[in-house]
Structure formats: structure tokens, C-alpha cells
Amino acid sequence: MFVTVETAARTAPAAVIVAIDGPSGTGKSSTSKAVAAKLALSYLDTGAQYRAITWWMLSNGVDIQDPTAIATAAAKPAIVSGTDPAAPTITVDGQDASGPIRTKEVTSAVSAVSAVPEVRSLITDLQRTIAGSAERGIVVEGRDIGTTVLPDADLKIFLTASPEARAARRSGELKGKEATDLAATREALIKRDAADSSRKASPLAKADDAVEVDTTELTLEQVIECVVTLIEAKIAEKAGPAAETVEAGRADR
Predict the structure, then answer these.
(1) DSSP letter (8 states) at residue 201
(2) What's the pLDDT score for residue 12?
(3) H helical segments located in the chain
(4) pTM (2 decimals)?
């Protein structure tokens, strides 16, 4: 049997889709961006999308304590996410929102907004569209990627860490007016975990087939190395059948 390059291309595996979930402060964003850059994959921060719609709600006077009001307004903002891991961007109605979405006000409101089913449905559709159009593959990070958004992802990873480690990391990220003490940060993280894990619509949860990585005692570089190794193994696994077919064709010539 002879296999042409064209035939080999048609039988090659699809681009790898990686879902990385976990609570805040586990290193999801830093790890996901670095891994995507190392492996030349696209990158999507789904949490930024929920922060973006929350920021829009707050900026436009929507009562975030009123689920009906949130649901009614959910489809109004146009959210666009850039997927370059070296310089991820996010705009709302054409305006750069990368800074405003990281404020304490948005952080304290995002769980309430993201818990509304209409919001999750719209954002989930957007996320699936972005993942499906990533020709070379994509690393998607969030809280419900492996369980709800991309349940058929090629690889699912769930990052964890102790509340103390997560609080220390998050406090280190906050500056100026947003800075706070470790105890307050730890309390805020635990409160958000509870809200995200108990919501009815796509709660924060580890997928049954996800690989759990505890980052408490690991440096960022070690976490990145671990995740890269897992992804490379999955890529090799997906490429296996196609590679064998090509080799068989060469042997038959």
C-alpha cells in the first residue's frame, strides 16, 4: 500500500484540545499561557470572558443581584478574545478590557453573574466556537472546561493547591489599592470556591477523566514542565495511528 502526503494529511489526528480547570490561585493562567507558547498552541482564558461580561454589567448599571436583569442583558455586549498566548487580549464592544476586568469590584461580582444560566450558555457557545476554530490546537483554562464546555477534550488537567498557597500567590499578584492581607485573600478564595462549586449551572468540578496536579509544593516551572509532558504524550498518542500508516506506505514502496 502506498500512502501519499495528501492521504496522510487527511488521516492525521485533529489538533489537540487541552482543558485546564481548577480554582483561583492554582497557577492556571500562568501555566496555561506558558504551555501554549511552548507548544505553539492557541490559548483561551475563559475566566476573563466572565469577568468581561461582569464588568460590562457593572458599567451599565445592571443589578448583579437580580438574575433576571442579568439574563436580559447577557446578549448585549460583544466580547472578543485574542488567543495568542504571548499577548492574550480581550475587548468588550471594541474596548480593551484587560485592565478593568481585574479590579476587586469585578472579582467580588463575577460569581453572581457567571452563575446565571443564560450567561453561561452564551459564553460556553463562544468558548466552543473559539476552541473549534483553533487549527493547531488550543489550551483552554477555566472552571468547567473539562466537565461542561469541552467534555470531549483530548486531555483534561485539574490543578489544585492548598488555600494557604493559593492565597499567598493571589496576594502577590495584587498591588496598590487591590492589595490585601493573606487572611482576607484566603477567605475570599474559599468563599468564591464555595460559590463556584455549589452553583447549579456548570459548577467548578474535576472531570472524572482529568489528571489532577497538586501545585502546592511545586514551582511554576515544575508545573509547566509537568503539563507540557502530559500534552506531548497525548500528541504522540494521537499521532500514532497516522504515523504508522505513513510508515506502512513507505515499507510497501
Answers:
(1) S
(2) 40
(3) 5-11, 28-38, 46-59, 67-73, 104-114, 117-132, 163-173, 182-198, 220-252
(4) 0.81
